[in-house]
Amino acid sequence: MWPICKKELRQFFSSLTGYIAIIVFLLVNGLVLFVFRNNILEYGYASLDQFFSFAPWILLFLISAITMRSFSDEFKGGTFEILQTRPISSWQIVNGKFWGSLIVAIIALVPTLVYYFTVNHLASTSGIDSGAAAGSYLGLLLLTAVFTSIGICVSSFTTNSVVAFIISLIACILFYYGFTAISQLPVFQNGADYYIEMLGINFHYQSISRGVIDTRDLVYFLSLIIFFLLLTKQNLGRR
To answer: What pTM did the predictor assign?
Structure first.
């Protein structure tokens, strides 16, 4: 598994594309938090709520860009057949691809800790609620893992990396906010809206972001990750 993981890391950082994707992610989040209208400096309170509500939408693009070549390039270049001849199972290949892409995404998230220390230092009175910030970062990490598993799964269905990027982006948006949007339809305002919203990622992400770690939220995220990885494995088995 780890040779596949290291191969993914080398492939992503072997060109400027990988570095540019991470830099753009950090730059956009930094501009929204400190420069653009209604930024943290104008808000007047030591809070990273704006970052944690905006970051998932940038992650959609970042992770789709990271995972789009995971399997599509292997199929297109004919190297997947070589992987199959190695003494590794399909599950090890899937896990290697998943962890390789996830580590890249985590590398992009780690520098955002600077936002926490910066805002905490600039606070004139009480700083940021550490519990809520830790919960939000945990939610962001789980969200990243789910998006990565979706991107890996989508990439296993096509030989075109651009198609994989677009479909992965759409799928992540649907799972993240689609159920919330559906629950807001007037036809579901009779009590069903709550249960429909619970099916979406956004509901559980917002729950963890409050700083309260609920077992149901953890089970939800882990179930989604395992489901998409198993779906990827099954698809590779058909090939």
So the answer is: 0.91
> How large is the average pLDDT for residues 3-12?
82
Residue among 141, 146, 147, 132 at smallest CA distance from 209: 132
Q: How many CA atoms lie within 13 A of 150 on its CB side?
A: 28
Task: Write the CB contacts of 31 (distance below 8 Å, at least 6 apart in sequence).
Answer: none
Q: Is the pLDDT of residue 37 over 70?
A: no
Instruction: List pLDDT tens digits, range 104-115.
Output: 999 999 999 888
Containing 176, the helix (H) or strand (E) segment is none
For residue 100, CA distances in Å to 63, 93, 132, 138, 238 come to 12, 11, 28, 19, 23
Residue boundaries of the structural domains of the chain: 2-238
Alpha-carbon torsion (79, 83, 84, 86), positive or negative: positive
Q: Is the pLDDT assigned to residue 189 strictly greater than 90?
A: no
Q: Mean pLDDT across the chain, nearest whole number?
A: 86
Q: Which residues of 117-138 are buried (b: 16+ CB within 10 A; e: fewer)?
A: eebeeeeeeebbbeebbebbbb
**Cβ 43 vs Cβ 87: under 8 Å:** no
Instruction: Return d(Cα 11, Cα 104) in angstroms, integer.
Output: 11
